[in-house]
Every structure is written in structure tokens, then in C-alpha cells.
């Protein structure tokens, strides 16, 4: 192993170098490091061959200059999470209430007039102890949830890290490595769309332009070159061009790493605990820690860093920019489901408030009338106890009304789905993308790689006025000049990182590395029995004069080389129509340049391009242009001085076309069926591609997107824009609404076209339930559309880092069928939450009603506080776990999507909730008011401190058993009759259901004073079981009632709601990787509060505490 003395430069010198820019950096490189050559020599690396691919050498570099990773915050232990959970304000108040409650239960005033019942004292301390036990349960459950979420987060973080790879040269060979394996001294290859994972000095560049806005806030692209500005920084994006750089700083020593350090992301101890406690009202503990963990991960992939801008305002300007941007971006709007749940929470809040207020008013009025009007009693201070008790009963009713198990159900459904979706090639970066995908009504898909195999091959060509429709031309049959220009143009005018490698097995396919279109062309060179590698060795990348890299605006690529004998040659390739439109000449039958004008262009389009496109081929034009210093031919340009290579318009005009080739990219065999499944599921699939209209139409027909005889539109970009824009050139939503419902193919699309289409569909109010749009993208310029879409899918294989950063889900196999699987999982998440809501709201309606009626009729609730604790807390948790872990089935694709505004609680669900609530309330009221007729021992008006009785125990037991059976009914939310279908495919549901039933039996028999229960006999159990099983029969009766007889307003939780501070969610407060890319789906800002189960316990504890305090005060009076 080497030592620091082997290197003539240290980390500090390199860090100070990377803080400079432009000429200042160049001066320092030349004066202190001896230029680029001297810097490479000091780093023991080679500009052309890079570092040796030897473990000892690489480890030596890591030991001296550090690793390309930022140490994550150490995971909190389970005990630390328990301690954090105990800091919850509601739990602290609850524990104080428990202590006071226990103290009051043991303290008895010496009053000889008052009879002291020992059982009453026992009941007092047991109820106080029950509060403590409840606190322990809540703390353990909360800590376990936090621990499991953190474990899941780290697993997702690790997965994303390994997905991000970068190309480097080691031992003279180009290889792709995970970014954390890069070391200082590596020669890295930068290409269009890359997110730079480390700092470096540019060695060679081809029209390289960098977006440094993530560090500097400057939106303009910065042109980089070895002789102007060679400094490349981690976390920035390569938006145009290509190049090579020598890495000079990694990990915490890179510019992103330095900012991360300033933001406190690498701190290993809680030095900011005071700050965190101050901000506890606004940020959850998980949010505080996991944001740092997340940003430490994304520092290597360039994603915006989160943090507190105040901490770094005086430390680093770039850090301030990043932190302030993150602060703005963290105001992430809600997803479709979040919007609907928030709306539902408001509606439940209104209903609960009305019922609670009515309860209090009725109790107070009844007391006043009976005591002060009828009995003519005078007001006494002790009467205040009754009024306060009435208010407490009203608050308890309100607490019961809120489905506090909902956040846990959301968390479980989403995290469970994320784990399973990874196996289906969907790497979810934003949790809410799961459920949003279930609502998708429209998918705007790329063609290349998603619908097709992305394995390009030239299958047709037009060379020297001869159309080769079957097979390739023979090398010896081609004109000598033409074939030389053809193979040299393809070899040189392609990214040098694009290669075609020999098959690894005899008879196998060649391996394509890099841009697949270029690989198809290079394969054509090999099919002509020529070597592109020999040409590249003769013309290495370093001697290229200028490279105009391909982008969506140019639709072409040009490379300038030195011409033998003086002058320059420009090679061009691109979309055939564009290349031919720029051409004034074309190589004829004998290789001579012939004039190429409008008639020849029209003939070429009709007889060559359109037939190729009709066969589903992508047509590529190849051309060249010579600049000579003397004796110019008709198609050459005479030059006498320097050429302005920045004047691209002049350079590209007057070309000489060499050939037209047709590249085949076969449709994936599984795609037509996948698209048919989407269409059966009510999802419209649109293809947005850069290919010409004929190629696009052919592929779309093969896939099933276009169907013969159907009234669908297939438009090119020009016609699309002409139809949707007004006289001022602005997009008209009204005009767009006339186009998009029938549009199926958009060809020759610019990135702006995709964005306009996506935005137009999302904003349109043309459809009943509004559209939810998913988009696929792989290029850097797809980022705006990916951001705008409700769900953005980036290609894991062909996608650029910028596209992946802008996405919600990464398709690790680039396959459209994986999108269909995402739809299934999304609908499953949506349905899981709807199932839980149907179950939970039935429980809450019954509980609120029985508490309200009981309070008004017998001045007490038949369901006691501890019993409600069991129903509300334990059964919520277990039910959410059981109903949120159902596996998706093909049946999910047999219904239409919900859309953006369709009610979360449908009329069918309302019918089930109301129907089962009526059944359960009828049973409970029969037991309560007609229990004698059932042979029960009735005690309808118990004193406050009476021991548990059979009457109220039967009510509690019957309620829980009916609820348990209704949990089976709740597995189906679309009116299905067979509620047992698939029940054994979810063993977790069966285990939880049986466990809950056993727990209920134990509670009834052994609960005693703890749960206010008395052991039941066989007769009482028979009554409870019979009423419980009656739920199944009643469910079948409800299923026979058609849902459409209910009014349309019998549905709740629509997506279009006003902004609110309520955020009904469990996991959304915790940002996932890349969460800074805000979505515009729900239009609601998130709240900074989080609901804890401790709040319910707090109110129950205060009820007990206030009752005891007032009781003592009254008795002392």
C-alpha cells in the first residue's frame, strides 16, 4: 500500500483549486501544477488510459484522497427511537395525567359521612395504571414504525445509489462504475445528460455546456473547455456536448460534500438537538434525520440538498442557494389521494363537531330543564362538575369520530407496495407516486426503448442511387469514395463512448454500449466488414476540431475533423428530412456529387423515406461538407482564414448527402398485450416520439395504440402547434381540449410539445373526473414534462441522470409492461385505503352514535374509555395492517380509473357503511334497551363507580365481534358478493383476524376492572356470536341493493379541495429520494403537524383526571 509521499499534491491543494473559476483556475493549474499534464502526473494517472485497474492502486488513492461517499447519519437504536417517541407532547401530558390520576385514586379524604368501597379504590388505580400501559404500547408501536421506516428508507437509498453509474477509463478501457467507486485520479467521460458525481478538471471537451444552477443559482448554461473554464463541479448537469475530466475531489472534499458538511448532514452526533427541539412543532423527528440521510445520498447524484439556510448563510454562498431552494421545494403539494383524504378529514371533522356540540347542548339543556325548571332546584357550585362532565363527553365523541388509524394504513399500504414494486422493476422514488399511478387515466409514452426493444439495427439503406431493401450492400460493390465517407462519417460522428462489442457466446448477439442509434450505425459498419475502432484510433477524440452534439432542437449531430491536404471536413447525421433539407448535393451512382434540389427531395421522400417509415423504420440521413484552401469542387467551400465554428447556421447549410439508412427497432413482443390491458382498464395510451409521422404511425399500429377505422389523430409537431395556438402564438386550452381526447400519436415532438400536451391534459376540465397523467422520459429535455406529470417514469437503462432526478418512478428494465404493473399496485394501494376507510368509518359511526345516544338517554356511554382504547387504537392498527397488505390481482384492471375528482368514498361504500352501521346500531340498541327480552341481566343505570356488569360487557363484546366479521366484508368495496375470495392468499390478514378474536375472548374473560368487563356465560356468548355472524348475511342483503338508487351527493372525499392545514398522512411527511421536485397534483400545501395516537390517549387521560379532580373537590365541599 502506498503513502501520501507518493503524490505531489494533497487534498487541501486540490480543494482550493476547485474553488477557482475561469482564467484564475487556468493560471493556478499552469503555475502550481504544471498544466493538465503536470496535474495528471502528480495524481499518478494518465490522460488517455486513466488509472490502472488494480485494486492496490485504487485503494491507495482512496486512502489518500478519500472515498466518493458521504458518511450517513448513524441509524438510531430502537431505544433511542423509544426515547424520541416519549418526547411527544401528548404522551408527556398523558403520563402526567396518569400520575395525578394514580395519586388521587390512592388519596381518600377522612370523611366519616362517606362510605369507602374498596373495589372503587381498586378500579381507580387500575384505570391509572392502564394509562401507563397504554403509553408503553404507543411508544413501542411508534418506535417500531419509525425503525421499520428508517430501515426501508436506507434500503431504498442503497438501491438508488447502486443504480447511479458513471463511465471512466481504467487501464485504457471504458467501464461503467457505481459512483461510490470513483477515486481521485480517475479519468471520467462526461456526456450529454450526466449528473456529475465528483469534482474534476476538464481534459478534453466537445461543445460541453454545464448547468450549474444547483450550486450557483445561475440558470444560464456555462460553456466549459480546457482552455477557458476547465472546472467541473459535482452536482451539476451536462446539458450539451461531451468531454473527459480527471477527478480531483470526491465525497466530503467535493463542492457538494463541502456544502453537505456545512448543512450538518455528516454530523454523527446530535449537536443541533436544541435547534431540533425548537423546530419540533414544524418538523417530525424522522423528517429531521432522514432528510439529512437522504441528502447525503443524493449528494453523489446531484439532487438538491435540504437543510436550514440560516446555518450556512455566512458560511458558503452556494450552500445558501441550495438550502433556500430546498426550503421552497419542500412545500410539496399533495397527491390526488392526499387531497381526497384531506377533504374527507374536513368533512369528518365537521360532522364530528356537529355531533359533539349537539351532545353537549342536549346534556346541558336536559340537566337545566330537569333540575332548575321541573324540580326548581337552585344552582350550586357542585353543579359545575356535571357541566364539565358533559363537555368531556362531547370531546370524547369528537375524538371517537376521527379515524386515527388512517395515517398508519397509508404508511403500511405504500411501504408494502414499494417493496413489492421493486421486484416488478419499478424503483419508486416518491412514495405518493404509488397511489397516484392507480388513478392514471392517460399515459404519454416514449417509443424508443419503452415500446420497442431499443436494440437498433440498420436493415435498409439507400446509397449511390440504389435502394437496398433486403440485406446489406457488399463493401466491394460500393463506390470507393462513398464507402470511405460512409464508414468514416459514422465512426467519427458518433459518441466515442458508443461501441458495439463482439458476442460473448458463439452465435450470440453483439453487445451495444452507449447510444443505441449510434450503435445501430456502428453495427452497419461492422456488417460491411469494416472496423470503426481502427478509424477512431487514426482520428482520436482529442484531434476533433468541433463537435455539435445531438439535442432535441438540432435533431442532428455534426463533427468537424482536419481534412487530409488541408482544410476541414464536417460530418453530419440526423433525421433524414432535416439532413436532406440542408443538403445541396447528393452522391450519385458513381460517387460523384449531383445537385439535390426540391424535385429530388420530394422524390426521395416519396420513394425512399416514406417506404422505410411505412415498414416502421427510423430513417437517418448521413452527409458531409468540405472546407478546402484551394481548388474547390462544386460541393466544396473555399476558405482563406479562420472559420467561425460558432456560426452553426452557416456550417450546416450546403451539405452533400451520402446515404439514407433505415434503422429497425422492433416492438417488444409483450407490449401490444400490455397496451390492450391498459385500454381495457380505461387508460388511454399516447405515443410521443421524435420519429417522423409515418414511422410513428406504423409502430403505433403495431402496438395497438392506433386502430384501423378508429377516429384517432396522429399529428406532427408543426400541425399540433398550429392547431392548439391562438393568433398570438399562445397555447389555447380551449383549442387543446378539442385535440387531446382523440390524439394518440405526436411525431417529431420537441420536449416543449410533450410538456404542453401533459399540462393541457392535466389542466383540462373536459372530462367528468379530470385526467391523471403519467409520462415516460429518458432525455434531459424530458425533465419539465416528467416534473409536470402526476407520475413521471424515467428509463433506468437508457435514461439520463437528469431525467431520473425529475422522475417519480424509475423503470429498471425500460419496459412498458412494468408501467402496467405500477398501475395494478397503485390501484391496489388506493383500494386498500378505501377498504380501511369503509371498515373504520363503520366502526366510528357506530361508536359515535352509541356514545351520543347513551349520553343523552342514560347519561353515560355504554362503551367505556378503556374499551374504546382497545377498539380505536389496537383494532385500528391491526385492521390497517390486515387490509393494507392485500396483493394486487388482474381484477384491478377490469375497472375504469377513478380520475382526479371522483369521490374517494363511493356510493357503494356509503351504502355499505350506512347499511352495516344500521345493523350494528340496531343490535346494540336492542341489547341496551330490550336486553331483558334476550334473557340478559340488565343494569341500565349504573352508578359511576359500580363494578363491571354483564349487560354492558355483552354490548362491548357484540360490538367487537360484529366489527371483526365486518372486517371480512370490508375486503370488497365494489359490490362483490364473495367476500371470502382470495382471503387465504393474504396470510397476514388471517393471522391478525384470529389474533384479534383470541385477544377479545381473553379481554372479556380476564379483563375485569382493567377493561370494565365481566366474564360471560355460554348463553351470552351465543347471543354475541349470532349477532356477529349475522353481519355476513346482512352484507349479502346490502349487496342486492343497487348503489345507483342513492343520490350522487352520497359520496365523500373529492380531490378538488381548497388549501388546508390538515394533512391526513403517515409517511408523506418523510421526504423520499428526490422529493424536492414538487408536484402540482392536489394544489394543497402540506401541514407541519403530525397526528399521534397519543392525542386520543391524552384526551381519555384528561377525562379521567378531570373527573377525579372535580369529584374530590365536590366531595370536599
From TrEMBL:
Under Enzyme Commission nomenclature, its number is 7.2.2.10
Tell me the membrane topology, using the record's own terms: Multi-pass membrane protein
Q: What reaction is this protein's catalytic activity?
A: Ca(2+)(in) + ATP + H2O = Ca(2+)(out) + ADP + phosphate + H(+)
**Which spans does this entry mark as compositional bias, Basic and acidic residues?**
268-296
Offer one example of a GO biological process linked to this entry: copper ion transport
One short Pfam name that applies is E1-E2_ATPase
Q: Which residues cross the membrane?
A: 89-108, 128-147, 344-367, 387-414, 836-855, 909-930, 950-968, 988-1008, 1020-1041
- InterPro entries linked to this entry: ATPase_P-typ_cation-transptr_C, ATPase_P-typ_cation-transptr_N, ATPase_P-typ_cyto_dom_N, ATPase_P-typ_P_site, ATPase_P-typ_TM_dom_sf, ATPase_P-typ_transduc_dom_A_sf, ATPase_P-type_domA, HAD-like_sf
Where the record annotates domain Cation-transporting P-type ATPase N-terminal, the positions are: 32-106
PROSITE patterns for this protein: ATPASE_E1_E2
How would you classify this enzyme at the top EC level? translocase
Q: Where is this region: Disordered?
A: 268-297
GO molecular function list: ATP binding; ATP hydrolysis activity; calmodulin binding; metal ion binding; P-type calcium transporter activity
- Tell me where in or outside the cell this protein is found: Cell membrane; Membrane
What are the GO cellular component annotations?
A: plasma membrane
Q: Which UniProt keywords apply?
A: ATP-binding, Calcium, Calcium transport, Calmodulin-binding, Cell membrane, Copper, Copper transport, Ion transport, Magnesium, Membrane, Metal-binding, Nucleotide-binding, Translocase, Transmembrane, Transmembrane helix, Transport
Q: Which family does it belong to?
A: Belongs to the cation transport ATPase (P-type) (TC 3.A.3) family. Type IIB subfamily.
Q: State the function annotated in the UniProt record.
A: Catalyzes the hydrolysis of ATP coupled with the transport of calcium.
Q: What is this protein called?
A: Calcium-transporting ATPase
According to its UniProt entry, this protein's organism is Acrobeloides nanus
Q: What does the organism's lineage look like at the top?
A: Eukaryota, Metazoa, Ecdysozoa, Nematoda, Chromadorea
